[in-house]
Amino acid sequence: MSGPSPGESGGPDDPGGFGESGGSGGSSGSGGSGESGGSSGSGESGGFDGSVESNETVAFEGGEVGGPTVVAPGIVRIGVGTGSPEGQNSAYVLPDRGVVVDPGPPSDDAWERLVTGIEAAGLAVDEVVLVLVTHWHADHAGLAPRLAEAADATLAMHEADAPLVADYAAERERRIDRDARRLRAWGVPDDRVAALREGDRPSPMPDSYPVRELVDGECVLGIRVLHTPGHTLGGATFVVEDDDEEDGNGSPRGTERPTLLVGDHVLPTYTPNVGGGDTRLFGFDDEADPGAVDPDNPSPLWFYLDALDRLVEWDGRRRRCGEHHAGGDDLGGVADDGDTDPPTPLVLPGHGTDLDLAERAAVIDRHHRERAERVLDAVRAVQATGTDGESGGEGASGDGVTPWAVARELFGEMDGIHAKMGVGEAAAHLVDLRCRGLVGVVGEEPVRYSAVGR
Asked: Domains in the chain, please, with CATH?
């Protein structure tokens, strides 16, 4: 059962780098259906004339963000960078708070666009006080140290991802070694692993830079931190809420409705990669059994879907930052306003336009349910044919099937980074299927799976 190649409809979800650039998707809609699910917001489409009015809300079409655009009161989107399947990265400026979220990739062109956008939003670079990053991938975090240094601002991100920026040079070497060991354990041939290592070029980021570590539920400048792992181990969503502070005009700063800055956890068109973009999600130390099931770390896919469910359940009735709550969940306590319907949150992704969270979550959930069925079918198909996923290779059906063989059955030939994304996604689904008792591990070095009951 040969599936589509990466980059075609239904290919493996792709963060766009060996772990460095981390762009976001490669399969669109559900199983490559190409459903967008994005919404264009309100207002009239229009170009950017060099300034942003505080009450201007401009909708735009397609995945390219373009010039600075007010997407909600107090929030300006800037399109930075190129090269992701999703289009440009979306950096966000909150001028009344002096906050920038996900500055973008570490290139001079992106820097110029970022600075121009910050100034057009009415904020001087040296007035930025806080740089927030949703996850460690360089297309989001790459410019964060440069901006924080230029502004003498605090750089902050979730504690699980913070070391990969704070100690970039050392953590990069650890990541490359960890990923290589994981790829070999999944059955990826040595020459492919070597090629991926060779192609992993360092980003122009400082070897180290101070990063404030944030924890789930923490609030900073009226912005709540929600830990949403799955795309990376320390992925975070930032909830922008109204607060009692005033802007420079004496009006309450903040948004008319809660706004979720979700990074790459939910995207308008593509399904974020789970498994290949951060191999730390598989748990254990680097030498542990890659097919094992850790009860405290069921699977990367479980983490991702659990966080997605929690975002959908977030209904806008959470208490503001700083308000006491008792017995609340990890998203904060619920403020009961009686029969008043809370405003629907605005959801802003790390690429492209605002989106309908419930609609996109349903598409993504369906995609992964269908992908799980295809992975299980692939295990059975490869075992039936006796091939191990390499051209001319033979593997007795009793030996089981490697994640690499499953990825090749699903996606066909995978070039460059698609090999890492494809096998990572296959591995994530195989671990999840093992947690559910549908496959078992029948071999190691590399790990091999067999369908239960076969």
From this structure: 38-263+287-353 (3.60.15.10)
